[in-house]
Amino acid sequence: MLLEGKNALVTGAGQGIGKAISLTFANEGANVAVCDVNETAAQETVAEIRKLGRKSEFYKADVSNSQEVKEVVDKVLDNFSTIDILVNNAGITRDTLLIRMEEKDWDLVLNVNLKGTFNFTKAVSRSMMKQRSGKIVNIASVIGLIGNAGQVNYAASKAGVIALTKSVAKELASRGITVNAVAPGFIQTAMTDKLPEEIKQAMLKQIPVGEFGSPQDVANVVLFLSSDLARYVNGQVVQVCGGLVT
Q1: Which end of the chain, N or C, is less packed with Cβ atoms under 10 Å?
Q2: For domain 7-240, which CATH number applies: 3.90.1300.10, 3.20.20.370, 3.20.20.60, 3.40.50.720?
Q3: Which of 154, 158, 182, 244 is catalytic?
């Protein structure tokens, strides 16, 4: 039980990587506040966490709206007393080549992926600073490290998440708070299932381990970074990509 008695807040927890993280946390003893815009999916996550004997509640919020985020954080603190772990996982894609990309798709991806991470980090860090402890894990992407044709908005947002992680890690470390990022590679989720088969096969050839990752592979690393095992790990970007980026 690596997280016995801890309270975690996970964004984008209704499905995929966020759901895997939430259930992994619950299996390790944590109570989980589930945040998502998809209430149906999120309530399923809540139900599964409760079956494990842990406390869980659903909170709906547009992560790009700072006022909604503040209200959610206040509600979580009222219901759970503390937020010991924050996982900024909520993210979207709107892929197309630069010359075809509309401004609204650039703005939407940056607002959800980067501004959403900023909003929750700022709102939660206040309570973590008061308790002088906390773990923040941001879900970035290897695309934020290497770029990718057709994903300039997504790449820029995830590169921003990485830079934000490193900066906030330096700001909050003296208060007992560590901030790290996980950069998944090709993980089998609903988001990546939308990619054309030829692109999937081309990507598979570039992965040294010869297979795609699972949401659980990412969740396992997030669990480590959220536990006391990672006490001295701060400001790092851990790639979970099967060697795609070496």
Answers
A1: C
A2: 3.40.50.720
A3: 154
